[in-house]
Write a structure and sequence with these properties.
Helix 7 (177-202) runs parallel beside helix 9. The chain has 15 helices and no strands. The chain is mostly helical and 421 residues long. It is 79% helix and 0% strand.
Amino acid sequence: MDIIANYGTTLVLVAALFGFLMAWGIGANDVANAMGTSVGTKSLTIRQAIIIAMIFEFAGAYLAGGEVTATIRNGIIDSNSFVDSPDLLVLGMIASLLAAGAWLILASYFGWPVSTTHSIIGAIVGFAVVSIGPEAVQWSKFGGIVGSWVITPAISGVIAYFMFISVQKLIFNTDDPLNNAKRYVPFYMFLTALVICLVTIKKGLTHVGLHLSDGEGILLSIAISIAVAFAGWIYIRGQKYNPQDDSKMHFANVEKVFGILMVITACAMAFAHGSNDVANAIGPLSAVASIVASGGEISSQAAIAWWILPLGGIGIVIGLATMGEKVMATVGTGITHLTPSRGFAAQLATAATVVIASGTGLPISTTQTLVGAVMGVGLARGIAALNLGVLRNIVVSWIITLPAGAILAIAIFYVLQACFS
């Protein structure tokens, strides 16, 4: 308690610095792999992907980032175990931010797409075990989170698989793929817009004071999605194509249409990612700020300070802009060959899965969700379409991440104790 009383402001400033570092790592790794499909299909340039991330990642983090934060802050460890020693919780959360952020930046430097969720959870569990003991960890909730790492890639993989199969059957494997694209692509636009609208209206706008009933939210989402589909239909109808083109040129024209959809799904992915994964950076920071502000009191409900969400959003965007290129290359071109139609199926499936998880307050790994979706698209063309060597390396990096976060957090925790005691 003396540490909080004597160094309260310093602790918050250090936590803010390390929280920004953690957000930087999220942008460099998790956002980069989320944008990798768009860049890998050449639907977006790296600069365009960064601009989209700047707008939609920040919007997702600021408007809809509070729901998952409570799970990261209060769900993994039992805060009651730290009631008599809140200084340990504060130092542990700071250590977790630095440990997870450092690991993410190292992984991004080498182009490894790892899980930010694994990093921060491993770090929090590591410091909790050495500071209080295994009883400080709510292992039942930890098990549920681990289960989600398996379930969500499976869900996104299945959605992506059937999404791409439907595109193949309705458009590409037909006698007139271009006209069928004009017919069916507006439906895919409707689905994409619906995913974005549901999370924005029912979740994001709640944080800015607009509360709609379930029925109102669904109706408004459907109305906006129909308008988007109609606008897409008009746009596609207005495009002029040469009917004398051969089948390869028809396929290329269809892919151009799906390139438009990739831009929309990139926006959806960025918003969904910002709403879910910003919690990995601001959760521990929010815990430190609230404990210091209350003089050491640990409460189960604490308002997030106004400056924390923007700090996380800005850090994510800067991380992507400065260090995201290597991870984008790994995900966008390494796992399987992606075209705009394949990338669209993978990205929409990922966005839908992340939005569902974010709405329920369950922290998931966007990395694993996206890789599952890309695998689903690849499997739709046969297992030979997958680069199993790259997948093996990705899985190994996932396995290493959890203990790496824990070991680094334990070491940093002991250093912080020595510095502030």
